[in-house]
UniProtKB/TrEMBL annotation:
Belongs to the ornithine cyclodeaminase/mu-crystallin family. This is Ketimine reductase mu-crystallin. One of its GO terms (cellular component) is cytoplasm. SUPFAM superfamilies: NAD(P)-binding Rossmann-fold domains. One of its GO terms (molecular function) is thyroid hormone binding. One of its GO terms (biological process) is thyroid hormone metabolic process. Its EC number is 1.5.1.1, 1.5.1.25. Gene3D superfamilies: NAD(P)-binding Rossmann-like Domain (3.40.50.720), ornithine cyclodeaminase, domain 1 (3.30.1780.10). It comes from Hemibagrus wyckioides.
Amino acid sequence: MAEQPVFLSDDVVARFLSYDELIPKLEEVLGQFSRGVSSEVVQPVRSVMPIHNHHGYLGLMPAYIAHEDILCTKMVAFYRREGNLNLPSTQATVLLFNPEYGNVRAVMDGLDITHKRTAAVSAISAKLLMPAQSDVLCILGCGHQAVSHYEIFTRLFSFKEVRVCSRTLETAERFAARVQGPMKVFTSAEEAVHGADLIITVTNSSEPVLFGEWVKPGAHVAAVGACRPDWRELDDVLMRDAVIYVDTREGAAVESGDIILSGAEVFAEVGEVLNGTRPALRNKTTVFKSLGMGIQDAVAAKLVFDKWKSSQ
């Protein structure tokens, strides 16, 4: 008789998913993906369907990782919520399968997985690409992704100053009260990023919020928002002048408005840098364009499931 699927709620997922275990797994699988061996990692480009009546999209993100025998898919719905801050902009569910029989082993709330694996990959990019002396961190945007990025970046790195910026002072102050640690609050992105060594953009904007003329030469930018081909967070000047890194070339070519609309050339995948086949140019201004990958969800989901199972 096939095993019955279990449902793991958001609090269970959060309890069993730690950055200390997640980051090494992500580094390993990103390197495997960038080696391009199809028998190791199978991950099609995200399939996205519009939800016209509600200004949203449904994305499907399947992946299979052979050496760990992980079969997984994430279903993520994301919306433009500019007029209603009481509704979530993203909902996600992760399905973990038994790869031998095809049955579902676990249904998991996918938001904590999404937030943590995204922030962890941004942190991996920063470890590789940010200036050796990085004193000032600036986060543009104050949503859930801003929280997860703040948590991991202030844990892994030591900054003399942390800045956060939102279009409204109330939102920025609410974010500052939610997280622990001192920070400066801004409503002007230009003022917030001035002199910053590391800039993280986690906005829901479809138009540029960060401009090249504002960015300190040699800074590293982790661009997390703008996951549609007609959305962008970064202007043409920044995309032209910076060295561009991505999580997946194939995904960036069809999904990233920052890359498509600017015509910028991708220099490398982060996995290629981890493999040592492409260099980390710390002395240059760098941009890591993050779109998210099914393999990232897969390794996170397997970590959660294995730890949950061992606790039973």
